[in-house]
Design a protein that fits this description.
Blueprint: H1 8-58, H2 63-149
Length: 158
């Protein structure tokens, strides 16, 4: 029977931490994908509005309509900049979560290796104990057999 691994609870906690970091990474990736989609949708809407504005300008519009259109396009640009910043922030969060997961995985792997070494040492110790026991049994049997087959010297009686 092997001795229990004294750091088992810590290993369990490291595994739970690694799983939590994996969930955080998955959530961050989902958020980054959502932000990227929103940014792309906004960019497409802006391009559609620019195409529409070009059509309006070509047909001859009033100055008020052009000013209004210019204001709307500037707002699209501002929203696009904000969406790009949010996308970059979400991507940075993904990178942070990925690094945290890598750190958690390394910490767990270190404890896993310690556990493996502990188990190997316990098996080697048990094997050595078994070998010593078998040697002792073999020596005692050999000693008993050799005494049984050895002729005893008789003393001469005077």
């Amino acid at each position: 029977m092997t001795a229990p691994f004294r750091l088992r609870r810590l290993l369990d906690l490291r595994e739970l931490h690694e799983q939590a970091m994996a969930r955080n990474l998955a959530h961050a990736r989902g958020t980054a994908d959502d932000e990227r989609r929103a940014s792309d949708d906004l960019r497409r809407a802006c391009e559609t509005s620019l195409a529409h504005a070009a059509g309006i300008a070509a047909n001859g519009t009033t100055m008020g309509e052009l000013v209004s259109l210019n204001r709307a396009l500037r707002e699209f640009d501002q929203h696009s900049v904000v969406a790009d910043e949010r996308t970059r922030a979400a991507d940075a969060r993904v990178d942070e979560c990925h690094e945290a997961l890598a750190i958690a995985a390394r910490a767990r792997m270190i404890l896993d290796r310690l556990k493996t070494r502990h188990n190997e040492a316990a098996r080697a110790e048990a094997k050595a104990t078994d070998l010593k026991t078998m040697d002792a049994v073999a020596l005692s049997r050999h000693g008993a057999e050799s005494r049984a087959h050895t002729p005893q010297k008789h003393r001469k009686v005077r």
